[in-house]
Design goal:
With 57 residues, the protein is α+β, with helices and mostly antiparallel strands. It has one domain. It has two helices and two strands. Strands 1-2 form a two-stranded antiparallel ribbon. The longest helix is centred in the C-terminal third of the chain and has 24 residues. It starts with 6 loop residues before the first helix and ends with a helix.
């Protein structure tokens, strides 16, 4: 997905607010590219691990 962003689009600043339960994880301005890459590198692999654990149940 990130590879589909133009250089200009990847540099657009966006406000990011990530809360997990009662914990504030991120409250900052990121570029669109950093947000997409962060989701791909951190968030989605955690869900893949969760799904993998369900398989072994």
């Amino acid at each position: 997905m990130a590879s589909l962003l133009s250089d200009a689009d990847a540099l657009v600043p966006v406000r990011v607010l990530i809360i997990s339960g009662h914990d504030l994880i991120v409250d900052d301005v990121w570029t669109t590219g950093d947000l997409v890459n962060g989701i791909a590198r951190v968030h989605l692999p955690r869900h893949a691990e969760q799904l993998g654990r369900l398989r072994s149940v």
